[in-house]
Design a protein that fits this description.
Blueprint (H helix, E strand, L loop, with lengths): L1 E9 L9 E9 L4 E6 L4 H6 L5 H20 L13 H10 L4 E3 L3 E4 L3 H12 L13 H14 L3 E2 L2 E9 L4 E9 L3 E9 L5 H21 L1 E5 L2 E6 L4 E7 L8 H12 L3 E4 L3 H16 L1
Parallel strand pairs: 6-7, 9-12, 12-13
Antiparallel strand pairs: 1-2, 1-4, 1-5, 2-3, 7-8, 7-10, 8-9, 10-11
Helix pairs in contact: 5-8, 6-7
């Protein structure tokens, strides 16, 4: 998967040009995954900090980290993110910070996840011990897989499908990760990872989402997204949940509860290795609607 990264540099005297890498920002527009990691032991940075200006670096990391946290939270929210993170966003950070805090030019790299990308950057470019990271597949991984599948079938963002849509009934709204539209909604796709640490919160999110789907099945609904306003949603619209199963077995309470919700609300559910089938179905629906 394509990621882009910038190293965060502490430059105590920009005129002298001496610096030390104290962290990194990595992200992928494909997976909507963005992370910042800073050194756990800043001894080398402190050794250069004659003017006691290192706190400026940590304040910068805190601001960017907060933006990333809010962007990540927006994946589960009905509201658009306060800051839209993208490669342009990272390029602007690089351009704007030329003093004590500097960022290396955004550079592409290939990795399976942001954690893997950061592990490699820290092992090769930043002197700092890093703790072992698990191979958990997050929601970001499912988003990326679905985007790749749509792309392989000739669909693109705002060219066959839209993202971050809102499905509304007469009294409730829920977020929808992907919506295939052609005058009306043809396919709605929501992604889940049942490898989430907070199983209780995940179970509640699935139940809330399922309730609005239930209302949609009874009365239809409305879809709103960037470039799509008030699109009609038929009660029989194709609704698909694409998910990563629990890491160990199928005994996860959130997972079992979700399967019940999917069955009760007639939500088709496919595992992450079946995303191509979901995208092929979207292509078929678009072809039929255009005929």
């Amino acid at each position: 998967m394509r990621f882009i990264y910038s190293l965060i540099r502490f430059v105590p005297d920009p005129a002298r040009g001496e610096f030390v890498n104290v962290g990194a920002i990595v992200g992928s527009e494909l997976s909507s995954e963005w992370q910042l990691r800073q050194v756990s032991n800043p001894a080398r940075a402190r050794a250069l900090d004659d003017e006691r200006s290192l706190d400026v670096v940590w304040a910068f990391c805190n601001r960017v980290g907060t933006d990333i946290d809010r962007f990540d939270e927006s994946l589960y929210s009905l509201f658009d993110p306060e800051v839209e993170l993208s490669e342009d966003w990272l390029e602007n950070l690089h351009t704007q910070h030329r003093n004590i805090v500097q960022l290396s030019p955004p550079t592409p790299m290939v990795a399976n996840s942001a954690d893997e990308a950061l592990d490699r950057l820290f092992s090769q470019m930043i002197l700092d011990p890093t703790r072992h990271r698990s191979s958990t597949v997050t929601k970001h991984g499912v988003l990326a897989a679905m985007r790749r599948a749509y792309g392989s079938c000739g669909l693109g963002k705002n060219r066959g499908f839209v993202e971050r849509a809102r499905l509304s009934t007469s009294d409730h709204s829920i977020p929808v990760d992907f919506a295939v539209v052609n005058g009306e909604a043809l396919q709605l796709v929501q992604t889940w990872s049942f490898q989430s640490v907070d199983q209780q919160a995940l179970a509640q999110q699935v139940r809330s989402w399922g309730w609005v789907v239930h209302r949609t099945r009874n009365q239809g609904g409305r879809l709103d997204a960037n470039g799509v306003e008030g699109c009609e949603v038929d009660p029989d619209v194709a609704i698909v949940a694409v998910y990563v199963p629990p890491a160990t077995d199928g005994s996860s309470g959130a997972y079992r509860g979700a399967l019940d919700v999917f069955k009760e609300t007639e939500i088709e559910h496919r595992s992450i290795d079946q995303v191509k089938d979901v995208a092929e179905e979207a292509r078929r629906l678009l072809a039929e609607a255009s005929a």
